[in-house]
Amino acid sequence: MKNLSGGLGAGFRQRYLEVVASIYIYNEHRGYTSLDRVLEAVRKLFPGDTDFIAAIERHRDDERKHYVMFKRWFELQGRMPLAVNRDYGHIDRFVGWVFGTTIDDLDTAAVASDPSAFERLCRVISLTEQRGLVQVESVLRNRIIRSDPVMTRIFQIVHRDEPSHFEPYCEWLAQRGRPQSMRSELMADWCIHKLLMLVKLPTLFLAFGAARMQRWPDAAEIA
Questions:
Q1: I want to staple 31 with a disulfide (CB 3.0 to 4.6 A). Which of 63, 85, 108, 164 is the partner?
Q2: Structural domain tally of the chain?
Q3: 168/109 Cα distance (integer angstroms)
Q4: Which domain holds residue 152?
């Protein structure tokens, strides 16, 4: 594929960009809406830990900012994202693996009040965000992504923000002498990443009849 500017190359390029952006827009929306629940529990159970609360707030706001940037990219394209679900969510699969339930069914308050469970949640968030940093670095080396200046700028901003998304959870664990990761969690993260990149992304790319979202994920929030 020597020429990405026309014909089949242009179609491939556009499809690839849409698939990547659709997966990211799902994960960014899932991220900040899930952090809303984490924040609610942490504010209630650890009201004196203002630095940690502030760090989670910044993390949540960044996830929302990233979601809006991808949303704006689609708006500029004049189309809606492909409709993806939690099968494409790294955090969805990670929570399912560690806690045996979906994010929607996870009792965040109960997790936050159980030191062992909250420790696992911090590691899940931290490892997910560390994986995100590695993935964004890979994306920024991709010539198809770099062929779109707006998309490139979005990922540059995501890359800049990413370390502050896992460092507070690492610090919380370190302050309590708890491990930053467990072997089983590292294996789960690796398996989930490979599944998403080697199976789910190509499957969505080839699903040319895949439906598009009918409404933005945040439609109810801004109504």
A1: 63
A2: 1
A3: 19
A4: 12-216
